[in-house]
Write a structure and sequence with these properties.
This protein is mainly α. It is flat. It has 14 helices and no strands. α6 (133-161) packs parallel to α8 and α10 crosses α13. Helices cover 73% and strands 0% of the residues.
Amino acid sequence: MNNLRDVWSSRFVHYISEVQKYMQFIFTGHIAIVLVFLVGAGGYQYSEWLKVVSTDFPAQTLIAVIVGIILAFSRPTTLLREPDQVYLLPLESKMPQYFKKALAWTFWSQVWLVAIVYIISIPLLKAVTALTTFDIWTMLVLILVLKYLSVQGEFSYRYSARGHFIWGDRFIRAIIFALTVYMGLQAQLILAIVLTVIACVYVVVFRKKCDGEPVPYEHFVKLEQNRMMSFYRFANYFTDVPHLHGSIRHRSWLDWLYKFVPYSKGNAQKYLVFRTFIRTDDHFYLWVRLTAISAVIVAFVDIPFLAWGMAAALSFATTIQLKQALLSGGDFRMDMLYPQPENARKKAVQQIVRLAMIVQAIIVGLCGIMQPMFFITILVIIIVSELTAKITKS
């Protein structure tokens, strides 16, 4: 405990191993296929749009606003735990060395997002502005500097204000950063540097306020717990997270759907599985999310084969995940007390998954009704879903 850098390093190793454990379930083969299609479709649509984009398109304003907002969100990753409120209290004077390591990781783990967004916007800047290559890449360097200031600024503000009114701080930083990027994209480098200095002063003011203040362990611990819980909830869409259980909601506004699966003695398993699908957040939102993604892609991608491929990939992902989720019940269920055929639940799951995928096919097909041969999308989703349900293990 004497060297807090070692404490950070050991926690960082544990954190990375924990993330990797679940990432292998998130980035599976079918997700990789979906991402490849999304990147390819998006890149093609973007390149085609650049050929016809008007020279008066407000590219600088749009990019400045987007980059400014992304820069403003710089939540620190401290990896602090609840016991630290007691055990690290005697080492409070040495905590700056711990936070130095934490903020370095925060910067490198977040800077890639804003860098990618800006790099993607470079072709647009070249198409509608007269910026030189030097101007464009100088702005990238300036954006990296702003990201560093943002990380330091949000941490200092949270430290001094105990996290209160963080949205106000983010709003101010977003305005400063957006104006800085806008001036830089207008080739007003001097004004951009002046605004960067203002951002530095803003950060220094809150850093000074941290002097003499006790470490807000409670706020940073809660922040870390919320961050990890968000990751676990996301991972739980792809695999079971042992210490996380999906919440159950009544969803009374969907009670009318139960008419399609009426309750009866011979229909018990189908009725129970259907209610499980509707009421369990993990199952229901999994279907809603993938259906929405498929619908948006089909509606806006005007390349038929690409849209069909994406719909097929998402149909496969929805079917296999929904089937596995509905089959993976607890070790004991009340329906086990009643005489039911051994494969009754498997048949019920297949029927409910088929019903859900037919509805998905109809929704996606209607969203792409303006595209040529939109009905093929419906057939593709249903065929891929049926094949997936039959090929995958029960």
